[in-house]
Design goal:
- By secondary structure, this protein is an all-alpha fold.
- The protein has one domain.
- The protein is built from nine helices and no strands.
- The longest helix has about 40 residues.
- The two termini are about 25 Å apart.
Length: about 250
């Protein structure tokens, strides 16, 4: 009975440690996003203009020269009309070409946004189908999820190889080693799931719900990508430490 209580307390300590780690990570991430959001506090006119093709101030070098020459050679009104028509045609072509991919997109969203309601997932899909910019950023987000899965798989494989190396150097009890490996993988799965759920909620709030200017969407995705990588590295260090203690002690 006392032994059971001891293991229960030990598990609670481990769980609380993981929760504290995730909470600290979440706080840091929110602070980063708050700074990002404050830096993006622009006027309504600026947000509207940023929703469509880049203006002249955003072109640089040869690209800017091409635009100026184009305006000088033709009627300014005609040039602007052609640019607008081209944007509309390209947008329609892109959105129409995805008609056969809607079911596939929904399947992907059901996997990535697994904790979301069907209503919220439909909101995500409809938002992307109605906006070429959101379509692109949603696909970037889905690809990022696949990349993160690869990182997690690589992490587990690395720790498994690391354990085999320890077993070749020390006299290791196979049962103890396997038990610790299972615990390590469980810790990885649980913390990664919490992290992904948190990132998805931020994506839904900032990107889908338009609480972040579109010109900052790419930056938001990169922040998520980099912080996830840092978190995986921390899990790697933590996993190696736990394996060392269980095997060498």
């Amino acid at each position: 009975m006392e032994r059971k209580e001891f293991y229960n307390r030990k598990f609670c300590i481990l769980l609380n440690t993981n929760r504290c780690l995730v909470s600290l990570y979440a706080i840091i991430f929110v602070l980063i996003l708050n700074v990002l959001t404050l830096s993006c506090n622009v006027s309504a006119e600026s947000q509207l203009s940023n929703r469509y093709p880049r203006n002249l101030s955003e072109f640089s070098g040869e690209e800017s020269e091409d635009v100026r020459n184009y305006d000088l050679e033709g009627n300014p009104d005609d040039s602007m009309e052609e640019i607008t028509d081209d944007l509309y045609d390209n947008t329609q072509e892109n959105l129409n070409s995805t008609g056969d991919e809607v079911n596939e997109l929904k399947e992907q969203c059901n996997v990535v946004f697994h904790g979301f309601s069907e209503e919220d997932i439909n909101t995500i899909i409809n938002s992307a189908l109605g906006d070429i910019f959101k379509w692109e950023i949603l696909n970037r987000w889905l690809q990022l999820h696949d990349d993160n899965r690869d990182k997690v798989d690589a992490l587990k494989e690395f720790l498994s190889d690391y354990l085999e190396k320890l077993k070749s150097l020390y006299n290791v009890d196979e049962n103890i080693a396997q038990e610790q490996m299972n615990k390590t993988n469980h810790t990885i799965d649980s913390t990664i799931r919490i992290t992904e759920d948190y990132h998805n909620k931020l994506f839904f709030y900032y990107v889908i719900k338009d609480n972040l200017p579109e010109r900052e969407h790419e930056r938001f995705v990169n922040i998520c990508k980099n912080t996830f990588t840092l978190f995986v590295n921390e899990l790697s260090n933590n996993g190696q430490t736990k394996l060392n203690k269980s095997v060498i002690s």
